[in-house]
C-alpha cells in the first residue's frame, strides 16, 4: 500500500491562499499603519489614516465655548482606506466566531449557507448603524425640525460623530466590493445594491446633504435590519415567518417617508432659501440641475426597490397558493365509486347482478 499524501498548503497568492489568509494580511497592513504612530518620521502620515481630518474650531453661544467642526477633503480617502481594513477584519471575526459556529449546528444547504452568512453580516452592520444614527439624530434634533434639512445650506461643517459616521459607512460598503471575490453565486444582485449604497452615501457626503442622508438612512437601516433578522430566524426554523409581515409593512412606509422628505427638501426647501448658485470653493451645489438629478436618483431607486418588492411578494403568494393546492389534493378523501361501477366490477368477478337472479319456477323449467 502506498503512503497517504499529506494536505499541502496552498501556493502563495493563489485563490485558496487569499481566501484562507486575507484577514491576516489585512491585519498586518493595519498594524503597520498603527506602528507608524510610534515614530516621529512616519507619525505625520499614519495619523492621516487613523484620525478624522479637516477640523475647524468655532466659537458659539454667549459663553464663547469653542466647538470643533469638520469638513471633507482629499485626505479623507486615506481615512476611508484604513477603516475599510478594519471592516474587513471585523467581517472575518463575525464570520469565524459567530456565523460559522451557528452554521455547524443548523446544517444548512449551500444556497442557504451563503444567504445565512450574508444576512448575519448585514444584520450586525444595520443594528450598529441604526443605533449610532439614532444617537446622532437625537443629539442634533434633526427629527424635531424638518426645516433644519435645508436651512443654512450649504452645511459645510459637521460634528465629529456625523463625519465619522459617513467615513465608516463609505468604508464598510467599499469593503464589500473585494469581498465579492470570495462569492460564487448571486454576485450581480449584491453588486447592484452595494453600488447604490456607495453612490447615495458618497453623494450626500460630497454635496453637503449629510443631514438629509442621515435622516433617510436611519429608517432604511431599521427596515433592512428587520428583514435580515427575520431571514435568520427563518433559516433556523421555517415556521417563523411573522417577521416578514412586519417588514413588508415598514418597507412601504419607509419608501413613502423617503420620497416625502426628498421632495420636501429638493422641491420646496432648497429652492426657497437665499443662498442659490454653484460654487466648489464654498461647497454650494444649490442649482436646479443638481437638485433635479438628486431627486431623480432617489425616486428611481425607490421605484426600483418597490418593483423588486412587489415581484418578491407575488412570487411568495404564488408559492403559497401552490402549496395550499397540493395540500388539498393530498388531504382530500378518495371519491366513492359509482353504483354502476360496483355492478360492473361484480359481474367481472363472477358475482350475479340483482336483476339477473331468476325465480324458482324459472329454475324448474330450465332444469326440466
Can you describe what's shown?
- The chain has 368 residues and is mainly α.
- It has helices spanning 15-35, 40-50, 76-106, 110-140, 160-179, 187-206, 210-236, 242-269, 288-331, 339-348, 360-367, and strands at 55-60, 65-70, 277-279, 284-286.
- The chain has 11 helices and 4 strands, in the order ααββααααααββααα.
- A two-stranded antiparallel ribbon has the order 1-2.
- Helix 5 runs antiparallel to helix 6.
- The termini are far apart.
- The model is unreliable at 1-6 and 350-357 (pLDDT under 50).
Structure, briefly:
The protein is mostly helical and 368 residues long.
List the helices and strands and how they pair.
Layout: H1 15-35, H2 40-50, E1 55-60, E2 65-70, H3 76-106, H4 110-140, H5 160-179, H6 187-206, H7 210-236, H8 242-269, E3 277-279, E4 284-286, H9 288-331, H10 339-348, H11 360-367
Antiparallel strand pairs: 1-2, 3-4
Helix pairs in contact: 1-3, 3-4, 3-5, 4-5, 4-7, 5-6, 6-7, 7-8, 8-9
Amino acid at each position: 500500500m502506498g503512503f497517504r499524501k499529506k494536505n499541502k498548503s496552498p501556493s502563495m497568492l493563489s485563490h485558496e491562499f487569499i481566501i484562507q489568509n486575507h484577514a491576516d494580511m489585512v491585519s498586518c497592513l493595519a498594524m503597520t499603519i498603527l506602528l507608524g504612530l510610534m515614530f516621529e518620521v512616519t507619525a505625520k502620515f499614519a495619523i492621516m489614516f487613523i484620525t478624522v481630518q479637516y477640523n475647524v474650531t468655532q466659537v458659539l453661544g454667549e459663553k464663547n465655548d469653542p466647538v470643533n467642526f469638520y469638513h471633507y477633503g482629499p485626505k479623507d480617502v486615506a481615512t476611508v482606506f484604513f477603516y475599510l481594513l478594519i471592516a474587513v477584519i471585523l467581517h472575518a471575526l463575525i464570520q469565524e466566531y459567530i456565523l460559522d459556529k451557528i452554521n455547524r449546528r443548523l446544517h444548512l444547504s449551500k444556497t442557504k449557507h451563503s444567504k445565512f452568512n450574508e444576512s448575519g453580516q448585514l444584520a450586525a452592520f444595520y443594528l450598529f448603524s441604526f443605533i449610532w444614527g439614532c444617537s446622532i439624530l437625537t443629539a442634533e434634533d434633526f427629527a424635531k425640525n424638518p426645516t433644519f434639512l435645508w436651512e443654512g445650506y450649504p452645511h459645510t461643517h459637521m460634528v465629529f460623530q456625523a463625519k465619522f459616521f459617513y467615513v465608516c459607512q463609505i468604508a464598510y460598503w467599499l469593503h464589500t466590493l473585494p469581498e465579492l471575490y470570495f462569492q460564487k453565486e448571486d454576485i450581480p444582485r449584491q453588486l447592484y445594491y452595494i453600488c447604490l449604497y456607495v453612490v447615495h452615501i458618497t453623494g450626500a457626503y460630497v454635496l453637503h446633504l449629510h443631514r438629509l442622508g442621515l435622516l433617510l438612512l436611519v429608517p432604511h437601516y431599521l427596515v433592512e435590519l428587520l428583514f435580515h433578522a427575520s431571514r435568520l430566524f427563518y433559516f433556523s426554523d421555517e415556521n417563523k415567518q411573522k417577521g416578514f409581515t412586519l417588514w413588508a409593512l415598514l418597507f412601504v412606509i419607509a419608501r413613502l417617508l423617503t420620497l416625502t422628505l426628498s421632495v420636501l427638501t429638493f422641491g420646496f426647501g432648497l429652492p426657497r432659501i437665499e443662498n442659490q448658485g454653484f460654487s466648489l470653493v464654498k461647497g454650494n451645489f444649490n442649482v436646479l440641475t443638481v437638485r433635479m438629478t438628486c431627486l431623480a436618483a432617489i425616486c428611481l431607486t425607490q421605484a426600483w426597490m418597490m418593483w423588486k418588492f412587489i415581484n418578491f411578494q407575488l412570487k411568495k403568494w404564488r408559492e403559497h397558493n401552490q402549496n395550499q393546492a397540493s395540500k388539498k389534493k393530498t388531504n382530500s378523501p378518495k371519491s366513492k365509486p359509482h353504483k354502476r361501477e360496483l355492478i360492473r366490477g361484480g359481474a367481472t368477478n363472477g358475482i350475479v347482478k340483482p336483476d339477473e337472479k331468476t325465480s324458482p319456477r324459472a329454475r324448474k323449467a330450465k332444469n326440466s
